[in-house]
Amino acid sequence: MGNLDHKRKIIDYFKRNLTKGYTPDSLKWALIDQGYSRAIVEMALDQVNKELAEKAPVLKDKPTIKYEIIDEYDKPIIIKKSWWKRVFG
Hints:
The protein is elongated. The model has no long low-confidence stretch (mean pLDDT 87). It has 89 residues and is mainly alpha-helical. The chain has a domain at 2-55. Helices cover 58% and strands 4% of the residues. It has helices at 2-19, 24-33, 38-55, 83-88; strands spanning 69-70, 76-77. It has a two-stranded antiparallel ribbon.
């Protein structure tokens, strides 16, 4: 039972510091350098990744990428298709 509480504290530590912008590797090595077991730290990191993946939003449609070419005066350049491309696609 104590091992589960210990693991939950490490999971909470990961979640709290990942939201602050720290990388998972830096947090993992910081815990290992402080004397925590490498196996427990890696299991906790795997659990954190699973929990965060469940909360992540699911994209139902692909994002569309729009781009335009701009000249030196910051005005968009319109590229027209050639006659052959318009006719034959």
